[in-house]
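User:
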Amino acid sequence: MSDILFKTDDYVFSYRVAGICIQNDRILLQKPTNDNGFAFPGGHAAFGETNEETLIREFKEEIGADISVGELKWVGEIFFPWGEKPCHQICLYYTVVIEDGHTPKEGAFLAQEQLEGRNFEIEFHWVPIDKISDIEIYPANAIQLLENLNDNVKHFVYRE
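Assistant: Predicted structure:
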């Protein structure tokens, strides 16, 4: 499968889908092992794959969890540096629930990620909701978005 991720001479475009997974007053977040910034788990959609199929595949590949995908909550237009080039990312955020018997490890744990043909480790963390303001999280407005998670779909633009 080919990810919906392409580069021009001047830009990178990324179509990503992420899961908002809250269990026992904790939220599941991921981060590269060499970075302090957390993000919501997910990955790039592949051509011909629905957003739901993307999330199911990504959670299974990365943490071995079966999930059910809930409602679309946020639509993000995100601009950030991707190496030497600026990236324009469209990211759709859905609520997800880990199916019974498939709860991944507690606390922090490592998983495998693949991007652009490279394999690397990524950290996953169960962060207590009341401690989320103590960490660096992307998008930076995630705390405000989480406070209003039961509202209608929210659109936001985030520039790094």
